[in-house]
Structure formats: C-alpha cells, structure tokens
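pls design
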C-alpha cells in the first residue's frame, strides 16, 4: 500500500490537534483533526494546511473532521467563507477540491460556510466514507 509523506516540521501545525500528510500518489493533502479545537486553533490549522498545500502544489484536500464535535462554529464559518476561501481562487492550476469527512452522527450537520462562486473556485463535498472521499478527490 502506498504511504504518505509526513510533512516537514515547518508544515506540521503545533498545538492545533491536527496532522497533515501529503499523499502524492492520490494526489491529496490529508488533514486530520484529532481533538476538539478552539476557533483560533482551527484558523491556525487551516493556515498550516494552506502552507502545506502550497509547498506540495496540491489542490485536493481531505479534511477529516470525525473527531470534532462542533462543525459549525459561526465565527470560523464566517472567516472561512469571507477570508480564507477567497484566497484559494486561482491559487493552483486546478480548482481546490475540499472533501470533508465527518462521522455518520454529524453527516446531516452543515460543515462549511456558504461560499460564493464569485469569490472562490472551490469544489466541496461531504462524506462519511473515506474511500468515497478519496474517489471523489481523484476524479477530475
């Protein structure tokens, strides 16, 4: 089975409850939150994810939220939709694809901010099955 490359220390967030792994064979950047995080930690985690994606030149991200309870923190959703997501427009040769992996219990809960097609070119989907998320990410 192919293995991923743990990102260099400068791209691994500290104290954000987050692991980042670049899988060039998929290709995807995998971000796994391992605990509940504060809004400031979550924002810092997304900034670390962006730095790692830039370093790898990877526009396909699997965001594993299964261990997080609160997926709809309003201030983070507003920041994501109004500040973070617009920076993704045209950043990579292809549109950024965000696959949110959630637990079955959270599958009905919205996980992302409303993102305007005018402000970003992200493609977003939510999954409860990791294989399905990887399959979606690998399709062009």
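designed seq:
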């Amino acid at each position: 089975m192919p293995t991923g490359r743990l990102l260099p220390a400068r791209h691994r967030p500290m104290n954000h409850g987050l692991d980042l792994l670049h899988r060039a064979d998929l290709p995807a950047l995998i971000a796994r939150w391992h605990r509940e995080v504060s809004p400031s930690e979550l924002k810092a985690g997304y900034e670390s994810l962006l730095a790692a994606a830039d370093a790898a030149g990877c526009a396909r991200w699997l965001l594993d939220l299964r261990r997080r309870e609160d997926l709809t923190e309003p201030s983070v959703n507003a920041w994501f939709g109004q500040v973070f997501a617009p920076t993704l427009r045209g950043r990579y040769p292809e549109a950024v694809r965000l696959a949110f992996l959630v637990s079955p219990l959270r599958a009905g809960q919205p996980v992302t901010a409303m993102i305007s097609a005018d402000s970003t070119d992200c493609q977003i989907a939510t999954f409860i099955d990791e294989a399905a998320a990887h399959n979606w990410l690998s399709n062009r």
